[in-house]
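Comment thread on ticket #2218

A.B. wrote:
> Attaching the input chain for the structure job we discussed in standup.
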Amino acid sequence: MSKGIGLRLTGLRRAFDDGVVALDGVDLVVEAGRFVALLGPSGCGKSTLLRLVAGLDTPSAGAVSLGGGDPRLAYVFQDPHLLPWRSVLRNVALPLELHGTPPAEREAAAREALEGVGLAEWGDHYPAQLSGGMRMRVSLARALVTQPRLLLLDEPFGALDELTRLRLDEQLRDLWRARGLTVLFVTHSISEATFLAERAVVFSPRPARVVLDLPIDLPEERPPAIRTSQAFSAIAEQLFGALREGGA
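C.D. wrote:
> Ran it. Output below, let me know if you need it in another format.
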């Protein structure tokens, strides 16, 4: 049974005071437990959409509706935003600390989250002692420590080298399958979207409008070699075509 939460965007519009319209009339339904990638040119409004879903910004029109029950969510940015004076363990435990979770309980949860991203032995280290990929895994563990039902990721691996990015893609997909949460993943990488997601939504240049909503028809098990398959290439070509025809 899915632990994720569904969401619905209806007629979503965001216009800023300077006259820039980031989103205009976006409708999107995401079922609980689904992994959806969001693609589009730089500045088209993808990050604005995530902020609206997270409640960090308010739409100018339209609505964001989360499914019933506990709407707990977490947000992962491109920059890990770790506190350099806190150990890895204490960085991961920070959300629980802010919520008043007792020390022993939050430490146990943080250690479990670190184990989930393969960093169980690094809790006593500090961010400066980690590689870029490891810092991003710490950021992911910090997001997961609260047991979110909706995970929002804004180009989390965009600044990493290709090999590290591929490995983190595999790890993220494994975590999603194990936890069953709902994921919205913003990326500029067609290959990354094709590998990770069950569905890819392509947006036009600003103001964003949906130009393609494509199911990713690939097996649930996705070994690295699937990236060289004919089926993978065909999906990637469809996404590229939509980006090009949409004006990207």
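A.B. wrote:
> Thanks. Noting for the ticket: The longest strand covers residues 21-30.
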